[in-house]
């Protein structure tokens, strides 16, 4: 594992955790749903109440600073944040179409887009090969599943992150 791959993995993990930290610090403040409660023709929300503007802003504010600490530009941090957010919103959209409630678990669907999209976006900046991208997605998936298990067990995670 190269240092670049490890740094990108850490940035994606931090992007994934920023909304949780924001919820813990701000409770119910600024928790407007990204979809503003809109529903699709299937009667389900577009994304659901657990995808908030607070979470998006937390990721967009935290990641540029962490990227700078790792020696990258703030723009790289913003791009990783956008990629991670896009993957997370895509997963939520698909889960709602499948009739799954917000914050429900969908192994692989919860992790792959959230790690694959930023990895593909950053493959040239972080000098990633295809095998590096696959390893990053695998590593993120395993780490996220373990962290999610413990965060639910410790009641850090619950509905509406």
TrEMBL record:
Keyword set, alphabetical order: Membrane, Transmembrane, Transmembrane helix
Top-level taxon: Bacteria
Keyword Signal listed: no
Disulfide bond is among the record's keywords: no
Pfam families the UniProt entry points to: CarS-like
Membrane-crossing residue ranges in chain numbering: 56-85, 132-152
InterPro entries per the UniProt record, alphabetical: CarS
PANTHER family, per database record: CDP-ARCHAEOL SYNTHASE
Stated name of the protein: CDP-2,3-bis-(O-geranylgeranyl)-sn-glycerol synthase
